[in-house]
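Suppose you are handed a protein chain with no further information: no name, no annotation, nothing but its sequence. What can you learn? This example shows the usual starting point.
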Amino acid sequence: MINKRIRENIAAKRKALGLPQEFIAEQLGISLNAYSKIENGPTRLVSNRLVKIAEILGVSLRELIVGQVFTEEEYKHACMLMESKHNQDVSYYKQHLRDNELLIKTLTEMAKERKETIDYLKGKIAELEKTTSPTQQNG
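A reasonable first move is to predict its three-dimensional structure. Written in structure tokens, the prediction is:
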């Protein structure tokens, strides 16, 4: 997985610079086929070759391995954006929680009122049953 990412970074940087694989292969002193296997696999990536490829592409070894490297200002800006997004998410979920709590409270009150209504009606039915004689029920 790591090698795949490095291979993708190498290819992306090479393409961004508009360099053909032939140029990199020539600079490394290897065949085009051998270089193609570096970008596409299955050739094992060797550290001294990675250093040379980084030099050819004009990037640090870190950038070649990790990918895009941010300046301190870009990093701070990215952190600020992530923090802002995080705060928005937290705010959204807090509001969602408050809404759900209100919904639960409202439904609980409605259920209590319904129970009270049912209990009242049961009482009325019981009263009617007591006052109604068997002859009136058959009548």
